[in-house]
Amino acid sequence: MILNQIFTNQRTGNHAQTVVSRTDFQRDFDRIIFSSAFRRLQNKTQVFPLPGSVFVHNRLTHSLEVSSVGRSLGSLAGEFISKKFENELSEEANNFYLYQLNNVIAAACLCHDVGNPAFGHSGEDAIASYFEKNEADLKSKFSEKQWADLVNFEGNANAIRVLTHQQNGKDEGGTQLTFTTLASIAKYPCEAIAKKKGHINRKKFGFFQSEKETFLDIAKSTKMVEESGEPTIYKRHPFVWLVEAADDICYNIIDMEDAHRLGIISTNDCESLFIDLIKSVNESDERKVKEKLNFIGNKNERISYLRAKVINALIIKSTTLYQENFDNILNGSQDKALLDIFRTESPSFQEVERFSIERIYGHRSVVEIENAGYNVMYELLNHFIPPIILEKEQRKSYDKKALQLLPAQFIYENASVYERVLGVLDFVSGMTDNFATDLYRKIKGIDIGMTV
């Protein structure tokens, strides 16, 4: 029975098992919480500019909320699997699905965004476009697959690197998470050269060439279904769908709440959209929700209450869809995300998405931060990439000065050009919004002076 084999407590790095009071998957959660990569998410843009006069979500608060939703989805899915396959599961597997799957999904949700650079998706775009715009000077220095990594730079692939790569002077295996948790964040389990629109597992890509062997170990240990050996393509692991659903639930709904707090959308519009969405999941809930709203006068509290009800409704809907499509999910033939299935049958959910694109993601403050972030990230790469690709003896004094700003753990002088460039990307993509902006202003001469 494949469900007995798709999880493992094996970790990255060669470390002996230790006896502790927590399970291996609870330890994953704790390791992420205490990691510097997770901590930096507190100053990375989710949608709206940071900081502002009104507190809005950043990547860290978003990840915490996704993790909370993911834990609920993991619990419900685990109960379903345990009951449906009770005669086929080993005792170990049954205990895993009943008591540990929720911890796996919560941990995976917690770290699903650690590879995202500053300034949201515009940071990703800046990194990819830097290499596209400098193709004539740079492409010949890389293999075809290495070049595909760079011109398609992707936060999902970068997350695998952040969590598993051994930086200079640091321990083997990166954060040393279990292969099960790492498999659960691999939304696009293929290499960059294999990405292809129209295929849910290949819409983007899931690992750089530098982490390919690590990813193959993850895939093998968690029994992921191989689609192709060359180029490397796998079907999604069954747990990925739960992590994706948790993320989709949160960003679709909580961005609305943030926009309301900022005064970008009205209370009436937000309430109407949320109530219609609740009704589309369970029509009988509409009356109860409206009755409750009669006792809530504060407009922010009204939206917070509706947000909670919507999230609960979408958790239940996602769980139902996971159960209904579980056979396809298990054999790798599922071709649509859980909330995408719901979107096709729910005009209310379609309206939330349309409204968000028009009124929230197109708002001037969002577009301004995307433009600013793009330019900051692009210029930082333009400062560090040209000198790092040169051999030591070719560097002029200004090249050496630029590289003195790179922390030692990101410098791989004796490695290939590809590895040296990835070191720079590790540094730049790991920056917070504020750090990236401050460094940009200093190297451009906008701010001059000593800071400690």
TrEMBL record:
The keyword Hydrolase applies. Residues 55-261 form the HD/PDEase domain. Keywords: Hydrolase. SUPFAM superfamilies: HD-domain/PDEase-like. It holds the Pfam family HD_assoc. The keyword Manganese does not apply. NCBIfam families: dGTP_triPase. This is Dehydrogenase.
